[in-house]
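Exam prep: given the inputs below (a chain plus KG4), describe the expected output before reading on.
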Amino acid sequence: MGEGPLVLGIETSCDETGVGVVRGEVLLADAVASSVESHARYGGVVPEVAARAHLEAMVPTMHRALDESGVALDDVDAIAVTVGPGLAGALLVGVAAGKAYAFAAGKPLYGVNHLAAHVAVDVVEHGTLPAPCVALLVSGGHTHLLHVREVAGGIEELGSTLDDAAGEAFDKVGRLLGLQFPGGPHLDVAARAGNPAAIAFPRGLTGPRDAPYDFSFSGLKTAVGRWVAACERAGHEVPVADVAASFQEAVADVLTAKAVRACRDVGVADLILAGGVAANSRVHALARERCDGAGIRLRVPRPRLCTDNGAMIAALGARMVTTGVPPAGLGVRTDPGLPVTGMAPAGR
Ligand code: KG4
Ligand code: ZN
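Solution:
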């Protein structure tokens, strides 16, 4: 069964309602309900639709997680819930549920940073995080390079995106190519049939005078848009697979080069890839190749744990309990703009 605190985690920051159960570093349940299909026709997540879907999915997802883990609410040591960053209305549903369950069962309530939780979830796959390590966090709304001394409160930001997040770039280019929403996973599949060297798309912020750990993807997105428009103007059929593969290569190249450089500069030998874009097959493969070449140990959670889920919230909650972070309590508030280094805002 494993050692350590038994924690139930609740995630509702975007379009996935997740409830996970973790004991220490052992995953016992990971129930996820997604409202992604309700957003597909709008080409992006609609906040009010997401919040309503969380409300409907919360109780059934909770029951699924408890059934899957064979744990009763009375048995858990703590309840952890995402307080930010994320969509304001969506976060409120999860936090209200967390408060209700914590109050009803008389359990301490921990407020969890969604971004740090993306990194923390790797413990259920590969054991205790090496400390310190570097984490490349690439999701739909965020792109950060982090120096992690302690995932529960000891994270330093090395760099981040100046414009679009990596996942956002995948989704926008996916839409441009007529792929289904969200573009990321569909583009990953489309790229498999393409040539990554077909089109030389720009690599943002990779010049010698550019900030070494910051990212920029909006120029790349514009370049893809222009290339596709020129192709259409000339009356050619857009080679979707080649464009997808070449775009994906540009993103993977920049992400992995900067991550390996950060490990070298900071002097750490362990890199964690986290967030939805870490599920990308080329990002993963190129990171593996470059880490092997540089003598860096690479850890990437399995794709299901890279995208949003409740297990990651339970995993960071368990780490917070273990390291003695005090619970936020029933007064905890949400913070849609919580920075990657931030802790739960205290309640009154
Ligand atoms: O971490 P996540 O599930 O949610 C946020 O916290 O944002 O990340 C979602 C993002 C979306 O932009 C999605 O398109 C992208 O991750 N994504 C991928 C893949 N799977 C998910 N991007 C590229 N390739 C994938 N296989
Ligand atoms: Zn996320």
